[in-house]
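Quick one, probably user error.
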């Protein structure tokens, strides 16, 4: 053989064995890959870093802004078990605990137990008596977790919704899971205490300890996502405080009047303080709203919005406007009746009134809003509960902005008939409570959310009253748990940005939740067909919607956890989520991060994707978990060495809540500071009773405002190119790239370089974790889906109707109810990885993390090349000879 032919043959062999980045011998880069439910001892098993058994160094306690035990500081890299998943068989408990330990999880949040599962399952005889078999399953699960070195975070109230079986009538008229109502209604609070006593003083037969005496319990959360403030402010909720029935409304009104009587001497003093507006009425704005004279609805003023799908008509006759809907339109706001092209002035009082009825009990929505993008509400926006009888609805509001293209509309008209009459909108009106409502008689009504804008003086007092309700409830429950039950571990109330930050900061630690692209249901909550997630990457907007708000809501001087976080499936960039928050959370000096959720169901070992949140079969989240645990819990990413604070006084908190009508505003955004501060420096709110000076802070000058580097110089965010952002971590023992490739090479200190090849979305997440052996665990992911289950744009109408809503984003993706089949298909990533010079052996790993039987790939003084042909998401890299 000639030298030339020999060289060609060798080169061809090299290409066949080690394809260049971006090259794949297979037509598709996707292959079946479900992470094994076994937990063998191999390069992917990090259970050795868990200090088993959990609690061996004593109880967790708070030391300023840290969790500590007898061995020093501890951080929790955790996940959740939800609902029925908290009650596996004994064998399943052993396997779950071993698998979670393998991936480095050292805490599990026990969530949603109280809906019905702990009482025996769906539709139990009551919501009071624990089922003995379920209690045993929970006990054994906690025992197994403890044995593996995994702590538990016990949630008390999450989803129990008391009803007539428990002595609480009108369940269907109360907010979901009694959130908000359980903050002030004494019999419900007693029920919560009863549940807590039963659970926390119960002795686990496997550990021989009551949970109040169990050091493997890391923390206790009183009530998940619960706040009377948020329930009242949530105008979009189907069930709010506005229509709360007695005896609950009567009790709230009694407490409100008692609060007012402690502040004001008389009704006159109250009205003077509230500066109630009372102006004579001006001229009619909605001409023809009495419908006494028949007219055609021509769209110039009165309009009837339809589309190509709807079957309906609207006519004016016999002094009323009658609407018949035989088939709804393609979106929830079609058909729609309204009046357009009039002016609303900012701060000016208006009174809107009309009569309406339907052929059956029904719910519609009415608003005075912009007749153009962004369609913002300018005065009133609320739901109406209709009946067969005529009802008169009256709303008074102060214009929130000046706009000369305003509309009044009624939407949400489902199949049936509707009649509308006596529609009037005029400037002016009496903006106080009725004159027969007096403080001396205890008859001042509770403030409805729909009235908040028209009575700002009342709203400020009402918000302060709700803060006091929260203070009495949360601190009262906290003291009862500590003093009566003897709970020794840290206790939180609920999440920040649900109510008062000052109140939550009065407990042991603060918590928060966040989801990137949480599922949305345009028409009916949790509809299994009509839903979508936004298919977009956090790498393009890390400063805006998630990390900035989370970081700048933290309270200085206290431990801080994120007990729910996820990038829900089928978002195709979801592999970025856990590595990004693990690195960012450690840099921000957070103390716990919990993925939501490991599992919801009793079937804890599925083989295909069937839900938005479950990690047990989500390969992209699982395979990066060892690197995440190393960055966060083991501390391989360096924390910021200082914290930039903004001061939040109790008075300024009340002012923000009154103005914004949302506790989500309690972060830097309402205090004059941009969220992007958090990408450079650790951030927190500093509590103060009075306004305090603002600490100086300036960002270092940058050539491009969309490029950031942490002051520790380990985290780097590049959002310079539109829709092509990326994030890197360059710490001594861990490297991370996640984002859009765009034919770029990414350098880590000159010694390590990554050059991903072309992928399905031109996107990849790559983590490189140093092993004790001197080698590395390399993990490279792209996207995934079930067989025959690729998510599609919602506009392609998987639900059978066209989507044309101006409120729906153009990146809305869905599977409807067509999730696909087994197996799960994962994308292999073509990658050139440059390591320090020498010989490196690369072992492609199977689904259990074991080395495949094939010989390792060998590279000497050249980039390591892997790709889809390896049919794996992770690799063990060892020094060779």
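Nope, works fine. Designed sequence:
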């Amino acid at each position: 053989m000639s030298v030339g032919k020999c060289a060609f043959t060798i080169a061809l062999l090299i290409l066949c064995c080690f394809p260049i980045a971006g090259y794949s011998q297979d037509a598709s880069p996707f292959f079946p890959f479900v992470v094994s439910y076994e937990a063998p001892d191999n390069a992917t098993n990090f259970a050795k870093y868990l200090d088993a058994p959990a609690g061996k160094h004593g109880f967790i306690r708070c030391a300023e802004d840290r969790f500590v035990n007898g061995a020093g500081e501890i951080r929790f890299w955790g996940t959740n078990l939800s609902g029925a998943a908290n009650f596996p068989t004994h064998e399943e408990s052993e396997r779950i605990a071993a698998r979670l330990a393998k991936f480095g999880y050292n805490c599990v949040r026990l969530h949603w137990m109280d809906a019905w599962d702990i009482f025996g399952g769906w539709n139990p005889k009551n919501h009071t008596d624990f089922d003995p078999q379920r209690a045993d399953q929970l006990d054994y699960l906690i025992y197994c977790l403890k044995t593996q070195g995994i702590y538990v975070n016990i949630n008390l109230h999450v989803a129990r919704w008391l009803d007539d079986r428990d002595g609480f009538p009108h369940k269907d008229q109360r907010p979901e899971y009694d959130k908000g109502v359980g903050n002030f209604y004494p019999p419900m609070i007693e029920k919560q205490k009863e549940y807590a006593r039963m659970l926390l003083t119960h002795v686990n037969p496997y550990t021989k300890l009551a949970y109040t005496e169990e050091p493997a319990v890391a923390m206790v959360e009183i009530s998940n996502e619960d706040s009377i403030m948020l329930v009242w402010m949530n105008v979009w909720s189907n069930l709010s405080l506005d229509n709360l029935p007695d005896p609950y409304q009567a009790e709230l009104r009694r407490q409100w009047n008692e609060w007012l009587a402690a502040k004001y001497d008389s009704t006159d003093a109250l009205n003077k303080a509230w500066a109630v507006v009372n102006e004579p009425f001006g001229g009619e704005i909605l001409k023809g709203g009495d419908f006494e004279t028949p007219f055609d609805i021509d769209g110039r003023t009165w309009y009837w919005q339809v589309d190509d799908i709807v079957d309906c008509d609207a006519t004016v006759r016999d002094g009323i406007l009658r609407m018949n809907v035989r088939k709804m339109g393609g979106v929830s706001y079609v058909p729609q009746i309204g009046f357009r092209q009039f002016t609303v002035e900012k701060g000016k009082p208006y009174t809107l009134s009309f009569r309406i009825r339907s052929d059956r009990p029904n719910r519609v929505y009415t608003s005075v809003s912009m007749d153009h993008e962004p369609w913002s509400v300018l005065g009133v926006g609320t739901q109406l509960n209709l009946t067969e009888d005529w009802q008169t609805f009256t709303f008074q509001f102060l214009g929130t902005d000046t706009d000369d293209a305003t509309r009044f509309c009624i939407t949400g008209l489902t199949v049936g008939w509707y009649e509308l009459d006596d529609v009037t909108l005029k400037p002016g009106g009496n903006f106080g409570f009725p004159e027969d409502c007096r403080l001396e008689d205890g008859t001042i009504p509770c403030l409805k959310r729909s009235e908040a804008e028209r009575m700002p003086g009342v709203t400020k007092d009402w918000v302060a009253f709700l803060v006091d309700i929260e203070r009495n409830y949360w601190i009262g429950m906290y003291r009862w748990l500590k003093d009566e039950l003897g709970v020794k571990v840290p206790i939180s109330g609920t999440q920040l940005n649900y109510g008062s930050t000052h109140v939550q900061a009065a407990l042991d630690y603060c918590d928060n939740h966040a989801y990137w692209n949480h599922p949305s249901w345009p028409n009916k909550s949790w509809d299994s067909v009509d839903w979508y997630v936004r298919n977009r990457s956090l790498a393009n907007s890390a400063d805006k919607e998630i990390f900035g708000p989370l970081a700048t809501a933290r309270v200085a001087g206290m431990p801080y956890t994120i007990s729910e976080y996820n990038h829900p499936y089928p978002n195709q960039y979801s592999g970025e989520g856990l590595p990004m928050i693990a690195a960012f959370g450690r840099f921000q000096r957070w103390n716990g991060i919990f993925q939501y959720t490991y599992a919801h169901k009793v079937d804890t070992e599925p083989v295909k994707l069937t839900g938005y949140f479950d990690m047990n079969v989500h390969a992209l989240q699982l395979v990066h978990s060892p690197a995440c645990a190393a960055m966060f819990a083991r501390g391989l990413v360096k924390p910021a060495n200082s914290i930039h604070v903004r001061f939040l006084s109790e008075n300024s908190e009340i002012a923000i809540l009154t103005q914004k009508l949302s506790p989500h505003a309690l972060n830097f955004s309402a205090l004059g500071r941009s969220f992007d501060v958090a990408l450079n420096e650790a951030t927190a709110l500093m509590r103060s009773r009075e306004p305090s000076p603002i600490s100086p802070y300036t960002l270092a000058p940058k050539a491009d405002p969309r490029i950031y580097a942490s002051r520790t110089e380990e985290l780097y965010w590049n959002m310079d190119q539109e829709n092509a952002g990326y994030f890197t971590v360059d710490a001594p023992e861990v490297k991370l790239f996640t984002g859009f490739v765009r034919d770029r090479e990414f350098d880590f200190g000159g010694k390590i370089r990554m050059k991903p090849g072309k992928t399905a979305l031109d996107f990849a997440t790559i983590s490189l974790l140093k092993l004790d052996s001197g080698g590395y665990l390399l993990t490279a992911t792209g996207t995934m889906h079930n067989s025959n289950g690729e998510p599609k744009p919602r506009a392609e109408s998987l639900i059978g109707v066209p989507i044309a809503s101006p409120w729906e984003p153009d990146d809305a993706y869905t599977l409807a109810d067509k999730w696909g089949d087994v197996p799960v298909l994962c994308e292999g990533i073509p990658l050139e990885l440059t390591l320090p010079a020498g010989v490196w052996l690369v072992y492609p790993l199977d689904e259990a993390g074991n080395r495949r039987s094939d010989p390792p790939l060998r590279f000497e003084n050249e980039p390591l090349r892997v790709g889809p042909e390896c049919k794996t998401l992770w690799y063990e890299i060892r020094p060779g000879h």
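Residues 85 and 602 are 5 Å apart (CA to CA).
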